[in-house]
Amino acid sequence: MAFSPQGDGIISTSDRTLSLWNLENNEIGSPFEGHSSSVWTVAFSPQGDRIVSGSRDNTLRLWDLDGNAIGLPFEGHSDWVLSVAFSPQGDRIVSGSRDNTLRLWDLEGNAIGLPFEGHSGEVFSVAFSPEGDRIVSGSRDKTLRLWDLEGNAAGAPFEGHSGSVCSVAFSPEGDRIISGSSDNTLRLWLVGFWEDELRYCCNMLMHHPALTLSQGETARQACEVCE
Q: Are 163 and 141 in contact (CB under 8 A)?
C-alpha cells in the first residue's frame, strides 16, 4: 500500500488488481485491471498523478488515477517484480526483482541502460536518494547496495544483517539509510560517498599553494594510485 503525496488517497493491491481509496474508506472508481498475476508493489509519483505497480507477471505498469493503464507493460525482468519507486523528479522509475537485478526505466517503459547486477539474491526493496542521484537496494543476500544511475555499485555491499533485507529508505537529508530485515532488526547506515570526498580532497591537495611543483606532481601521482 502507499499514501498519495498529498495524503488524501491510498493505493492498495489485491491479487491481480489495484484499488484507490479516499480516507473515508471509500473505493474511488473501479479496480485497476491489467496485470495477469499478483501485484506485489505500488508507488505514487511525486506529483501524485501517476501510480506504478510491479507484479508476479514480471512486468511493471503505469496508471493514471482513473485506473487507465498508460502505455504498454514495462518488460525486461525475467522474474517477479518485487519493489518499485519513482525518482524525486518523477521522470524515472527503479524496480527490483526476483531475478536478482534492478532496472531503471523512463515513463514510456523504456529500460535505461543495462540491469544493475551485483546482488546474489532477490531484490526486495529499492529507494532513490532525495537528490535522485543514488539508489539503494536490499536483498535476500542479506546486504544493501548503493548504486549510481548508470548501474555502478558505489563501494562494497553494506553487510551486517543476518537475514534478508526486506525494506530500505533514505533519510530526508540523504546522508543515512535505514534497513529492515527478517533477522528482526533495523540497522542505520551512514552514507558518506567517500569516493567523491576523496576526489575533492585530492584535487585540493594537488593545487595547494603551499606545495612546490615537484610536491604537487608527487601528490598527483599518489591520487592516481588512489583512484
A: no
Q: DSSP alpha helices (H): ranges in the chain?
A: 194-206, 213-226
SS3 77: coil
What is the spatial distance between Cα 222 and Cα 227, in angstroms, rounded to a whole number?
9
Helix 194-206 to helix 213-226 angle (10° resolution) is 160
Q: Report helix, strand or coil for 104.
A: strand
Give the residue from 20, 5, 89, 9 showing the smallest Cα distance to 53.
20
End-to-end C-alpha distance for the chain, whole angstroms: 43
Nearest Cα residue to 6 out of 42, 41, 32, 44: 44
Is the pLDDT assigned to residue 67 strictly greater than 70?
yes
d(CA 208, CA 103): 42
Is this structure's pTM higher than 0.90? no
